[in-house]
């Protein structure tokens, strides 16, 4: 399989890339790691007439601290994210999820920004971004804007990104003390895609009660969602059997319209969300200690 | 591969108006996601060319849509047959309307056989895509119903 | 719109320059343009790992990379492993531990294993299996492949100061 013909350009700076994006508009696609786009192009399900390769833009890569906020460049690979010491120390849930994407080779090419912008309903990272309350920096020739991960995803393969916009950075706010995190997924054995993935960030107060809980769910529906009823069931309470199982079950019902396909029925997906929410909560609470 | 869709959509309008809108060729044409061309070829038969774009994936195709077994205003059947470069579809669905106190619940249930490239490689997302397009269609219909006040209202 | 791009890169230590169409996949560039047919094209859908090569030392599936994307990079294929008649330790270990039967998946397996051993010189069995999860073998049942990678790890580990 070979993609249909297309033009190719590899800008060196974000400014150049944005100018090209404006020039070619909807017929162009941004190319990051290419591990979602190139397979679609080989199948000719996607046939952009121009690829703007972001691979040569060094300012889009890398991980840095910005006064406590961790800033991850959009074309940083999953392998780099998973191995990064700052990520592992401050946001173990992100290292855990990034290290489970696809396989070694996929993680060596696939990028964090590519995954988020592609918005595959079964991608792992969207759930983590919701749980970490990430801010996404979006640039266009007109300027930059910050969008909360929570309002970024609009549907299957659909985000807030307009045709002339580009995701440049992922900004992770610092987590308070006594915060634990965990990512749990039911992976499709053949593809590694999340049939259901649950990312949890829990902060305990000095009495051991839940000060804040954020639960991001991917794979279950057409777009990633926060399990807000489940979060509310935990808030202010000391975690115990009763409220953990209530929260888990609520998480299942927080999925409004579960996907229903050959891999898992809608009911089974709800069940998996409940089971994995429970497991993730237990691990996150133990880590919050 | 078999594709099954079912779902419901609630309209804040009386059943007769919902029926008339759902079967109005102009409304159908206006609300089909990605419609490029719409041609009425018989009293209840249309030829539709769609260009669908979901994220990076795009495809176009032409289908014949027939409205059958019309029991105004409670039930009809829709048959869809056609396709394009990314695949072919052959299926039919039943649409039922139930009105109560100015609200109409529309329930749909359909089965189709999808073949070609999209069936071979797109199974994972096929039913979700279908659901999304049906959702867009109904949402658009809802907008039309809200925009056009019924005659004699006020 | 230019339909041909000139790329310069290093393949197995040798500088190469070629005019390529943007849609040319790296696997086809290596096999058809350079004649390096040790890189195998298997599933063609980035699942089987037979086409794995190293780009700047990192294992990638060359069926899912465009040749234009690796301009300026350093590529290692299976042909670049041996030093003359002397096999690379990973090749020697696959030989010694019978880490192959038909050999189709072997180049990809070895290159993925080199990526692993560069990051983790003392991998536990589970780590080897996880690292090779993107490489499919339909002959061996993996047992000997895992053994070969562990054998190579032992051979590549410096036991005394470098000569």
Structure description:
- The complex is a heterotrimer of chains A (289), B (154) and C (163).
- In chain A, the strands form four sheets. A five-stranded antiparallel β-sheet of chain A has the order 4-5-10-6-7.
- By secondary structure, chain A is an alpha+beta fold.
- In chain A, helix 10 packs antiparallel against helix 11 (241-253) and helix 11 (241-253) crosses helix 12 (266-288).
- Chain A starts with 6 loop residues before the first strand and ends with a helix.
- Helix content of chain A is 36%, strand content 26%.
- Chain A is globular, with a radius of gyration of 19 Å.
- The longest helix of chain A has 23 residues, at 266-288.
- Chain A folds into three domains: 7-53, Uridine Diphospho-n-acetylenolpyruvylglucosamine Reductase, domain 2; 58-172, Uridine Diphospho-n-acetylenolpyruvylglucosamine Reductase, domain 3; 179-288, Enolase-like, domain 1.
- Chain A contains twelve helices and 14 strands.
- Chain B has 154 residues and is an alpha+beta fold.
- The termini of chain B are far apart.
- Chain B has a single domain (2-146), classed as Alpha-D-Glucose-1,6-Bisphosphate, Chain A, domain 4 (2-Layer Sandwich).
- Chain B has a seven-stranded antiparallel β-sheet.
- The radius of gyration of chain B is 16 Å and the shape is globular.
- Chain B is built from four helices and seven strands.
- In chain B, 29% of the residues lie in helices and 52% in strands.
- Chain C is of the alpha+beta class and 163 residues long.
- Chain C folds into two domains: 5-80, Beta-grasp domain (Ubiquitin-like (UB roll), Roll), CATH 3.10.20.30; 89-156, DNA polymerase, domain 1 (Orthogonal Bundle).
- Helix content of chain C is 31%, strand content 15%.
- Chain C has five helices and five strands; from the N terminus they run ββαβββαααα.
- Chain C has helices at 26-33, 89-96, 106-119, 125-131, 143-156, and strands spanning 5-11, 14-20, 52-55, 58-61, 74-76.
- In chain C, a hairpin with a 2-residue loop joins strand 3 and strand 4.
- In chain C, helix 2 (89-96) crosses helix 5.
- The longest helix of chain C has 14 residues, at 106-119.
- Chain C is globular.
- The termini of chain C are far apart.
- The interface between A and C is medium-sized, with 32 and 34 residues.
């Amino acid at each position: 399989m070979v993609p249909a013909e297309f033009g190719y350009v590899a800008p060196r700076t974000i400014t150049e890339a944005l100018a090209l994006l404006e020039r070619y508009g909807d017929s162009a696609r941004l190319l990051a790691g290419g591990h979602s786009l190139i397979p679609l192009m080989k199948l000719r399900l996607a046939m952009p007439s121009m690829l703007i390769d972001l691979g040569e833009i060094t300012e889009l890569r890398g991980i840095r601290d910005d006064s406590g906020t961790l800033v991850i460049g959009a074309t940083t690979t999953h392998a780099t994210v998973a191995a990064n010491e700052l990520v592992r120390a401050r946001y173990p849930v992100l290292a855990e999820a990034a290290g489970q994407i696809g396989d070694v080779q996929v993680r060596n090419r696939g990028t964090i920004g590519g995954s988020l912008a592609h918005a595959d309903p079964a991608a792992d990272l969207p759930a983590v971004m919701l749980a970490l309350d990430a801010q996404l920096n979006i640039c266009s020739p007109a300027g930059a804007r910050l969008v909360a991960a929570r309002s970024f995803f609009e549907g299957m393969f659909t985000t807030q990104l307009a045709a002339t916009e580009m995701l440049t950075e992922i900004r992770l706010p610092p987590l308070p003390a006594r915060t634990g995190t965990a990512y749990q997924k039911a992976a499709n054995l053949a593809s590694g895609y999340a049939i259901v993935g649950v990312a949890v960030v829990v902060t305990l107060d000095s009495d051991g009660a839940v000060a804040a809980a954020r639960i991001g769910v991917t794979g279950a529906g057409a777009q990633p969602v926060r399990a807000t009823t489940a979060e509310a069931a935990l808030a202010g309470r000391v975690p115990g059997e009763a409220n953990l199982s209530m929260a888990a079950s609520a998480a299942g019902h927080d999925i409004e319209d579960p996907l229903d396909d050959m891999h898992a029925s809608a009911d089974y997906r709800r069940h998996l969300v409940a089971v994995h929410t429970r497991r993730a909560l237990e691990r996150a609470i133990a880590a919050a200690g | 591969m078999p594709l099954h869709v079912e779902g419901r959509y609630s309209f804040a309008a009386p059943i007769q108006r919902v029926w008339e809108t759902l079967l109005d060729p102009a409304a159908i044409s206006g609300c089909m996601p990605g419609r490029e061309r719409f041609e009425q070829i018989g009293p209840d038969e249309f030829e539709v060319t769609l260009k669908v774009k979901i994220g990076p994936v795009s495809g176009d195709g032409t289908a014949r849509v027939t409205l059958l077994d019309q029991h105004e205003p409670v039930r009809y059947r829709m048959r869809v047959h056609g396709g394009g470069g990314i695949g072919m579809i052959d299926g039919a669905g039943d649409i039922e309307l139930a009105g109560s106190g100015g609200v109409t619940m529309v329930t749909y249930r359909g089965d189709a056989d999808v073949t070609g490239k999209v069936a071979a490689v797109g199974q994972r997302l096929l039913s979700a895509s279908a659901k999304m397009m049906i959702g867009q269609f109904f949402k658009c219909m809802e907008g039309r119903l809200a925009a056009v006040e019924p005659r004699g209202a006020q | 719109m230019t339909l041909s791009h000139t790329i310069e890169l290093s393949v197995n230590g040798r500088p190469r320059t070629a005019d390529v169409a943007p849609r040319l996949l790296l696997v086809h560039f290596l096999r058809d343009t350079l004649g390096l047919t040790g890189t195998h094209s298997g599933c063609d859908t980035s699942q089987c790992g037979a086409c794995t090569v190293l780009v700047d030392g990192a294992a990638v599936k060359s069926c899912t990379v465009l040749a234009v994307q690796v301009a300026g990079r350093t590529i290692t294929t299976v042909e670049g492993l041996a030093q003359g008649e002397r096999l690379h330790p990973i090749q020697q270990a696959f030989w010694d531990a019978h880490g192959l039967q038909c050999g189709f998946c072997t180049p990809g397996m070895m290159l993925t294993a080199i990526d692993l051993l560069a990051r983790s010189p003392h991998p536990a069995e589970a780590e080897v299996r996880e690292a090779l999860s993107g490489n499919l073998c339909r002959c061996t049942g993996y047992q000997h492949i895992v053994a070969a990678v562990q054998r190579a790890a032992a051979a590549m580990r410096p036991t005394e100061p470098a000569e």
